Amino acid sequence: MDDPHTSSAPALRKLLDLLATGAATEDFADVLAEARRQGAPAHVLAEIDDATWQALRVHRTLRQHRRREAELTALFDTAGDLAASRDLDAVLQAIVRRARMLLGTDTAYLTLPDEAAGDTYMRVTDGSVSPIFQTLRLSLGDGLGGLVAQTARPYATPDYRTDERFRHTGRIDEGVLDEGLVAIIGVPLLLGGQVIGVLFAADRSARAFSPDEVALLCSLAAHAAIALDTANSLADTRAALAGLADANAVIRAHAAAVQRAEQAHDRLTDLVLRGAEVADVAAEVAALLGGEVAVHDAEGEPLTGRGAAGEGLALAAASSRAEGRAVRHDRDGEAPEDELWVCAVLAGQELLGSLVLRGRPDLDDADRRIFERASVVTALLLLLRRSVAETENRVRGELLTDLLTAPDRDPAGLTARGRRLGVDLARPHVVLVAAAEDAPGRERLAGAAARYLFGARGISAEHGDGVVLLLPEDGTPPGRAAAGAAERLARLSGAPVTVGAGRPAAGPAALAGAYAEGLRCVRALRVLGRAGDGAAAADLGFLGVLLGEGHDVDGFVGATLGPLLEYDARRGTELVRTLRSYFDCGGSLTRAKDALHVHVNTVVQRLDRVEVLLGRDWNQPERSLELQLALRLQLLAGTG
């Protein structure tokens, strides 16, 4: 066995054991002290001292290697977190926590710039206990962190409160003091040479940070910068993907809308090529849009489908015409499903009518385009119909002109011509004579008459100073037909129009006579100050008897004296005889009672009854004239 007094071998073995077990530095000095106590010679002590110094170097190197190994392990773990996690907050929290652990500091934290506010704010903290510190905001250049961000270089201070290299502010110093921090190190998060944040580690006691610790914190800051860049790239990618998804959805929706519009166009075009009518187009559009469709003419009259309110429809059609697109027609008090969409039907600037959609509160762009395209197709059909109608009416108008000019020349030939043109002159017709009251109206009257008859079975022609319309008799009184024609022709021509109607007639000669009667009615209306009105002979009182073709005396007498005749027949009274005597006596009650051989009170009572039956105006000049004429005609007819 080696003698410890003459050999250094035991001491050397002890040093090796200390190295193997990772003993503390102080334990190595104990080996040399023990040899001195045992009285080892000088050369042995020198050898042990040299071995101790070498062992301490090895010990320090091993400790550095172990620390470096721990740092590398932490960096690899951080890189693994960075690769595995998509949660930026979790990655940054892990980096700050490892910085605090590896440097052995009391706290660690990370700040990021706020571009909107123009400063930096606390993004992540670990080990912090102060709310003031956790909510600090640093302007560029303020405090240690502001200096790091401004210079893009790491800075460390063993005592922040006394370090004059930084620009101290009351708010920052208050937060540092409240957290109790003394020693602080900060390193920049660099990305392409630009500072995107600062990583800190701090102690609550004075401490000098070694270059290795600065390098370690810089490595962790680099990982944090990568994490931020990755997160921003992922956010940009997600935003781009979301934008692409939205664009794809828009493109698909647009493609579907275009395809639907093409199909609608093909279906509508096919209808036109097959000679469909306006009602067919309306039905097809209703099926395409899932609503109810009606077509109105320029005056708001329904051509097909359920009609809409006139004034509101006119305003909506005018709005659609001005905007050049379909408009929504919101009606007060109506349910949303009853609201209308209106699209003007135009030929250039001319309003041909309007298309009305009911039952679709909302229309997307595709359906709206289909609805507007349907109005174009409808305009085409209306123009075709009008062109055909004008051509047919021109040919039929020649027939009407020949009928009025020479009805007796060839009645059978006229009837045959009419039958070939779809007009049966052997059936009863009503003849309307229309005359405009000013020059512009006369120029537009023929076109207005053609539009008035559009879609009807009647014919019209210019004749004399006006226009003659021949309409199949449908049970409407001629006077009412004339009044309605006068009103609508005035709207169509933009000027007052006077219309006279003859009685219903059949056959060329009778129709020519009805025309003459209608013409006399027009003249009578003008004389009576009723220009712009419409009437038949029967509507003109005793003038109708004089102007009428058949001089309907019985009809006039019955219409004028009817209530008195019925009362006398029912009660056995003599109201008609009393009225005649009153007029014959010049309105004298005394002379009338002598002619009737009754008391004057009886005459007064009978005339009171006449007033009840005929009205209070029976003794007014115009009314009394009609009554006296009727009484005379009654005597002449032998019915008194």
From TrEMBL:
Highest taxon listed in the record's lineage: Bacteria
SMART domains: GAF
Signal peptide: none
Gene3D superfamilies: 3.30.450.40, PucR C-terminal helix-turn-helix domain (1.10.10.2840)
Annotated ranges, domain GAF: 87-238
InterPro entries found in the cross-reference section: CdaR-like_regulators, CdaR_GGDEF, GAF, GAF-like_dom_sf, PucR_C-HTH_dom, PucR_C-HTH_sf
Pfam families: GAF, GGDEF_2, HTH_30
The family this protein is said to belong to: Belongs to the CdaR family.
UniProt xrefs under PANTHER family: CARBOHYDRATE DIACID REGULATOR, DNA-BINDING TRANSCRIPTIONAL ACTIVATOR ADER
Protein name per Swiss-Prot or TrEMBL: Helix-turn-helix domain-containing protein
